[in-house]
Design brief:
Elements (H helix, E strand, L loop, with lengths): L2 E7 L5 H7 L6 H9 L4 E8 L3 E8 L5 H13 L11 E4 L1 H11 L11 H15 L6 H19 L9 H13 L6 E5 L3 H12 L4 E6 L2 H11 L2 E4 L12 E4 L10 H10 L5 E5 L16 E5 H63 L1 H4 L4 H28 L6 H11 L5
Helix pairs in contact: 4-6, 4-11, 5-6, 6-11, 7-8, 11-13
Length: about 425
Amino acid sequence: MNLILVGVSHRSAPVEVRERMNIHESRLPGALGDLVARDGIREALILSTCNRVDLVAAGEEGSATEPLLRRFLAEYHHDDPGAYDQHLYWYRDGDVVRHLFRVAASLDSMIVGEPQILGQFKQAYLAAREAGALSGPLREISEQALAVGRRVRRETSLGASAVSVSYAAVELARKIFGSLQGKTIFVLGAGKMSELAARHLVSSGASSILVANRTFERAQELAEAFGGTAVPFGEIFNHLRRADIVISSTGSPDFVVTRAAAEQLLAGRKQRPMFFVDIAVPRDIDPAVNDLDNAFVYDIDDLEQVVSQNREERQREAVRAEKIVEQEVERTLRRLASRELAPTIVALEQRLESIRTAEIERYRGRLDELTPEQRQNVDALTRGILSKILHGPITEMKSRAGGPEHGALVKVVRRMFGVND
């Protein structure tokens, strides 16, 4: 195959190195065109995200592809890749296939099971195809990687549960309300974690958002980002009863919402449920609020417990996903290796047939004494002998296709029978 991959990821390199190697989406067509235009490179794929940059090349048989990729990196980034060699990982042939399958299945992501990587991989594949950089085995491998990613999502629950506090808030809100369509969110304190939770809730269907912060300008800034409304902090109880979901992280030393205040809010809502996500330390919501009918309070420890349980579940599902990946890697390598055998098998058959016909020609004078039927029998006999001679090596090569000894065995067979590359 002569496949090679060089890359960096969140596992191997700090963000400043990933930034240096990053190739923006708008520059992908040019970078791909540059790669495949280089002598010795037939196909290329580039996956560039905030957490990884992977460059894959399929080289001409016998070409040294690693120096070509190093030269590309040096010229494209106007930088010496040797300066960050310690952060680069290199894969070849079967290990390239395994790496791409694991990436597409989200087994190599910062958060295992996250869904975005499959879409990012698809965009990288489409960009390479549109640039004319995929035309052979690497195209098949890329398409199979996408299929593996879809199979993992279909056959496992790897991405089904929340593994961050902000996603856990969404998961719990869905359990309480069923659907988040049309629900109103009130954000008390415009910190980063509150913003993330609000963002996930809005993307899950919540329709409107109110924001209150002790610094009103920050409340306005966050509200504007969500198309919501900023509320002066001193007026929060004039608006809280409108909220189905309250996300609170104010840094207040005392409870912002007491049990008595919550009773009044619920009465004003005619007992429609209220969900409080308290991610403040010390807590903003009085735990006694959870004793009220139709009030649901989850603090940071509750959310972390949900996340911890979900992480354990994802680890179990990741084991299942790894088995799927290994199955698919083995199948793909066998299929590609079997396909690569075709030229060798044809060359072997042609080589032995040329020997057979040459020998028959050498004995033609003696064969003239035979009847046409006898000459046909000699022809059939010699063809049968060749078939039996070839059966053993061809069967052995096919049985080892995709395995570690495959390449060496093919070379030995070709050398034994005098078949040139």
